[in-house]
Design brief:
Blueprint: H1 2-15, H2 23-30, E1 44-48, E2 51-55, H3 66-70, H4 74-84, H5 90-100, H6 109-116, H7 121-135, H8 141-152, H9 154-172, H10 183-193, E3 203-205, E4 208-210, H11 217-223
Antiparallel strand pairs: 1-2, 3-4
Helix pairs in contact: 2-4, 4-5, 5-7, 7-10, 9-10
C-alpha cells in the first residue's frame, strides 16, 4: 500500500508540470512510465500562459519501451520528452532535449530554459543550434513563446542567469575564456532583453562586463546539483 501511495504522489507531481488542459495527454504518458526508485526532486514553480506549473529538477524513472512510446500521439511524445529532460542521466536529458527543443509550445519552453541553467555543454549547443536562428527574428513564434515565458517569470530568468555564470566559472572557463562567449550566457542575455519592464544590473565577471548576476561559489555549491 505504501508503494502504491508513493507512486500516486509521484504521478501527481509529474502531472503538475504541465497545464491542466494537457491533463488527458499527461495521464496517458504517466501510464507507460516505469516505476521510479526515488520521487521527483526539488520542484520549481513557473507560470505558463498565466497558469502555475511545477517542474521537477530531477526524475529517476527508466525509459518506457519503444513499443509503448510508439502508441503515443505527437503531443504525448512531446510531454514524455519534456519529462525526460529532467532525468538524472545527462546523456538521456540531451537525447530527449534534441527531440523536443524544436516544439514551439509555451509548456515546452520552461523545460528548455531549465537546461540552459545546467552544465552540459552539448545540451547548450543543441539549444543554440535549434533556437538561436528563430529567436533572432523579432516577433517570430519562437520569440513570442520565450518572450512571454521570460516576462511572466523574472525570478526564474534571474536564477537561470546565476546558474549560467556559476557553471561557466566552475566548468567552462578553459573552453570559453570569456563569459560572453559561453552558449548559455548568450541565450540568457537574449531572454533577459525580452523581459518587458525589467532592467539588467551590470556586473563585472573576470575581464568582461556582463548583465548576468554572479552566484558566489559557496551559494552555487549549496543550491546547484551537479549531476
Amino acid at each position: 500500500m505504501q508503494f502504491v501511495s508513493s507512486e500516486l504522489r509521484a504521478a501527481t507531481a509529474l502531472e503538475a508540470a504541465f497545464p491542466r488542459r494537457l491533463g488527458d495527454d499527461v495521464r496517458m504518458v504517466l501510464a507507460i512510465l516505469p516505476p521510479a526508485p526515488h520521487a521527483p526532486t526539488l520542484p520549481l514553480s513557473v507560470l505558463v500562459d498565466g497558469e502555475p506549473v511545477v517542474i521537477p529538477y530531477r526524475i529517476h524513472n527508466d525509459e518506457p519501451s519503444v513499443a509503448a512510446e510508439a502508441e503515443l500521439s505527437t503531443t504525448q511524445r512531446a510531454v514524455l520528452d519534456c519529462l525526460y529532460t529532467r532525468h538524472h542521466d545527462g546523456r538521456l536529458r540531451q537525447r530527449r532535449l534534441e527531440r523536443v527543443v524544436g516544439v514551439i509550445q509555451p509548456w515546452v519552453a520552461p523545460f528548455v530554459v531549465q537546461l540552459v541553467g545546467e552544465y552540459v555543454d552539448e545540451i547548450l549547443l543543441a539549444i543554440r543550434r535549434v533556437l538561436a536562428p528563430e529567436l533572432a527574428v523579432p516577433h517570430s513564434p519562437t520569440d513570442a513563446v520565450y518572450a512571454r515565458l521570460a516576462a511572466e517569470n523574472p525570478a526564474f530568468v534571474a536564477l537561470t542567469g546565476q546558474r549560467v555564470a556559476s557553471y561557466w566559472d566552475c566548468y567552462h572557463r578553459r573552453r570559453y575564456p570569456r563569459l560572453i562567449d559561453y552558449p548559455g550566457h548568450a541565450w540568457w542575455q537574449r531572454c533577459r532583453r525580452r523581459q518587458s519592464g525589467t532592467t539588467s544590473r551590470t556586473v563585472i565577471v573576470g575581464q568582461i562586463q556582463s548583465a548576468a548576476p554572479v552566484m558566489p561559489r559557496r551559494v552555487a555549491e549549496t543550491t546547484i546539483d551537479c549531476r
